[in-house]
Write a structure and sequence with these properties.
This protein is an alpha+beta fold and 397 residues long. It is built from twelve helices and 13 strands.
Length: 397
Amino acid sequence: GPPTGKAIQILLSADKPDGLNDTAREVAAKLADVADVIDISDGLPPPGIDWELMVDRGTAARYGISPAAVGTMVQLVTNGVKLTDYRPAGSDDAVDIRLRLPEEMRTLSMLDQLRIETSQGAVPISNLVTREPVRSTGTLTRIDGSRTVTVQAGITEGVQADEVRQAVTTMLDAMKLDDRGITWRMAGEDEEQAAAMSFLAKAFVAALFLIFMVLLAQFNRFLSVGLVLVAVIMSTIGVFLGLMIMDQPFSVVMTGIGVIALAGIVVNNNIVLIDTYDHLRRDQDMDKLEAILQTCRERARPVVLTALTAILGVLPIAFGYNLELLSHETTFGAPSTQWWIALSSAIVFGLAFSTVLTLIVTPSMLMIVTRSKDSKVNRFFGRVARPFRRGKPAVES
């Protein structure tokens, strides 16, 4: 797979490698014009040459030498001639034992000085071998069968990475690489974030489904379940407002986990309110407005105190405070707290925003979507259904 490490990784792929290297250099050059992009690498191997050695078979035949014998002599100044192998005790892999010249003697000039014994005497290797320089190919990377070059770059510290990646994506779209037969995609952190976002989205849907099933078993009414789940929407809005207030980036992993955790926390407030409302309406036969007001009087304080204790518990982490229990030290902005700031901020602002709105929105929605016992609709259907409840058909006068 592609190498990892830098924040920006652009994978350029083509079935036909012609022009791929030039395109990689062009992309790297254009990246230099994008603000806050640093440490650019075009992903191409460093320039170099290899020496291609070719045995003159005709000349070797005149001296009675096989090409294999010539190749053996050449190996003395390259990888060496394999004599045997050795398997150390306790190891499953064998170690090659090779014969070759010392490192300082493995040069082209030494290759010209080597001589090979023939029936006509010692003959210089240079009489039997010709060499010519060729461009070094380096390491070839293929992904899904296509030749691939990875252009990499870093991002200036303290800059919003998503904004820089968006600028890079716009630049690549403007280059119209598809017209050249070259495809591209962003890898590295982008791939990891996409995978994490996909997983967390599935986890969020699964969490909502489980909460829905539990609430449906509890209330046995879709209306009550829907009112409870409204708190999840309000908490999510609070999370994004908190990120704007704190000027924090959206962390796919930690903020996403915070949103999922809030889905199971904020519904508790609505459960308490709606359960109390249903109890007053069902058991004490209260009118709708009276039941709503009584619910708010009884449950406002428990709802606020419950949310407040949860918020105060994670608030120090949201501000970057760290308490070392062993050393009895308190630090601010320690590296160990950076990972948890996004999660705790999501919980603090999401829970605070949802709690405030729960005490306003939930009673209002109960007033709107539920019917009064003495409403005109209830009285109308009551008059229509009264004869049937007595077992007699309705008679028109």
